[in-house]
């Protein structure tokens, strides 16, 4: 995307208008440089920064600067890092198990694990991490990959120690090796 289109998309998500607030223009330009014109990154960053102070914007930009490579993963993960623990759990469950499933079924399932699903899913929608289309949960491929990467990083060498397993080969390997470690995670899947 060109500069003007990128600025407009960021502004629609960060300010709920077609242009940035004048006092945020300098910070908006810096955000654009990290998003590199990628619409998904602009939407996620804009939604994450919506309603935040200049100091919060500067803090987010500092965090992105510390990344050795400002890859899309780091931009998307910034929004994930801003979630509370329950929101993170709901997000990771959706990324690993429930993408493409009926929203009402997923809500009932997660509700049975003690989550305040309506609130948690609304936050995920507001952050552009999920959306609902024709009653089904929709998640961009890159956002799902980010969620699954976060889970894989819990224990790179031993999948049995991760909070979630979703790939048949890994589940089979873990069960055959009898290397399953149970954690205090509320979702048994």
TrEMBL record:
It comes from the Eukaryota. Residues 86-153 form the Disease resistance protein Roq1-like winged-helix domain. The keyword Membrane does not apply. SUPFAM superfamilies: P-loop containing nucleoside triphosphate hydrolases, Winged helix' DNA-binding domain. Keywords: Repeat. This is Disease resistance protein Roq1-like winged-helix domain-containing protein. It comes from Flemingia macrophylla. The lineage of its organism: Eukaryota, Viridiplantae, Streptophyta, Embryophyta, Tracheophyta.
């Amino acid at each position: 995307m060109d500069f003007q289109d990128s600025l407009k998309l960021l502004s629609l998500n960060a300010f709920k208008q077609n242009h940035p607030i004048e006092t945020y223009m300098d910070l908006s330009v810096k955000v654009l440089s990290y998003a590199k014109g990628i619409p998904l990154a602009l939407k996620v960053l804009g939604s994450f920064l919506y309603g935040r102070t200049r100091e919060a914007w500067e803090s987010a930009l500092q965090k992105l600067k510390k990344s050795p490579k400002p890859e899309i993963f780091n931009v998307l993960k910034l929004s994930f890092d801003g979630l509370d623990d329950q929101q993170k759990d709901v997000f990771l469950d959706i990324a690993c198990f429930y993408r493409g499933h009926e929203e009402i079924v997923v809500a009932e399932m997660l509700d049975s694990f003690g989550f305040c699903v309506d609130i948690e899913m609304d936050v995920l929608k507001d952050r552009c991490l999920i959306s609902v289309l024709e009653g089904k949960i929709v998640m961009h491929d890159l956002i799902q990959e980010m969620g699954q990467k976060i889970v894989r990083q819990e224990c790179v060498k031993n999948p049995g120690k991760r909070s979630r397993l979703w790939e048949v080969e890994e589940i089979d390997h873990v069960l055959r090796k009898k290397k399953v470690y149970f954690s205090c995670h509320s979702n048994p899947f």
